[in-house]
Amino acid sequence: MTTPLAPVLLDVAGLSVSFATDRGRVTAVDDVSFSVRSGEILAIVGESGSGKTVTLMSILGLNDPRTTFVDGSVTFRGRPILGLPDRDLRRIRGKDIALISQDPMTALTPVHTIGWQIAEQIRAHEAISRAGAARRAVELLAEVGLANPAEAAGRYPHQLSGGMRQRAVIAMALSCNPALLVADEPTTALDVTVQAQVLDLLMKLRKDFGSAIILITHDMGVVAEVADRVNVMYAGRIIERGTTERLFADPWHPYTWGLIASIPPLDGPRPHRLAAIPGMPPTPETMPAGCGFAPRCRFALPRCAARPPVQRAPGRSALCVIGPEDRAPRRAEILGPLGDAA
Ligand SMILES: Nc1ncnc2c1ncn2[C@@H]1O[C@H](COP(=O)(O)OP(=O)(O)OP(=O)(O)O)[C@@H](O)[C@H]1O
């Protein structure tokens, strides 16, 4: 899977994002750090409102600079990119980093065929003839698994199914051979079978093109299937991180336990455990000073009112007061025994 020596492509250090609102300045992302190496799939997982999209948009320079305050550092291939002029950021976004959003319709215009749109995207970044770009567009549509790529190229977005549209958007994202694909809930709008196909496609692209992928999702099942490493985000912070294997074998944070308990089974009815995490995440306006999860955590202690300590082991960490000796019995209350790791 990941080569440990692959170079760091994207490095995010101490990223904090706050917004100017009617009620003053509120923090949505608080001291987030992570890096992505070439060719790896990093998942950022958390419920709606945990700060995943705000993190991404800030990295890509897509926030409204009039109301958004971004601190910290972001480097891409060793070059600082936070605060670069819009023109430079646009070049990086189109060529080196491509964004695949939740709703393919936001990336496509309804008035042109998808072949035309992909070809235009290619021509924006490459000196290539119109006919050459059109041919390349059809090749890309074949690459992302569209059965009749030449015919699909001649269709308008509304003439394609949701799954085909998302494949077309992925083809467009690939058109400049980006080193990093950022996929924000790419399968949320799709039905389960098509979801699995699109995830397979992302894994194939990593293999064939060597692209690194940041996958934003709220679904731990998706994480287990495709990611090499995981950042679990809650209330604007990364509250647990590690390799996918370690994190699922031995999750440390009660929020991660709840997310894992919420994975629906492949067959049979959805479990009652979907309600494993009662309550709602805080908003930036209601963010507690200490552990953001404490108000929903059945294991919370008075000291959770202060910022939680970082627990570490090689290649992983979690922000929680629960120490190694207390972890297994508490986790078993939510997940049952987890074998040796527990
Ligand atoms: N411009 C803004 N002004 C004020 N608050 C904002 C602004 N943009 C986002 N937020 C808030 O920041 C928090 C984090 O939002 P974000 O969209 O990053 O969450 P998310 O984890 O990506 O959720 P989702 O899965 O729903 O996209 C939310 O509470 C959101 O309401």
From TrEMBL:
Membrane topology, record value: Peripheral membrane protein
Alphabetized Pfam families for the sequence: ABC_tran (PF00005), oligo_HPY (PF08352)
This protein's GO CC annotations: plasma membrane
Domain ABC transporter: 12-260
Primary location group: membrane
Alphabetical UniProt keywords: ATP-binding, Cell membrane, Membrane, Nucleotide-binding, Transport
Database matches in InterPro entries: AAA+_ATPase, ABC_Ni/Peptide_Import, ABC_transporter-like_ATP-bd, ABC_transporter-like_CS, Oligopep_ABC_C, P-loop_NTPase
One of the protein's GO biological processes: peptide transport
CDD domains (alphabetical): ABC_NikE_OppD_transporters
Family: Belongs to the ABC transporter superfamily.
Name the UniProt record assigns to this protein: Oligopeptide transport ATP-binding protein OppD
Organism: Methylobrevis pamukkalensis
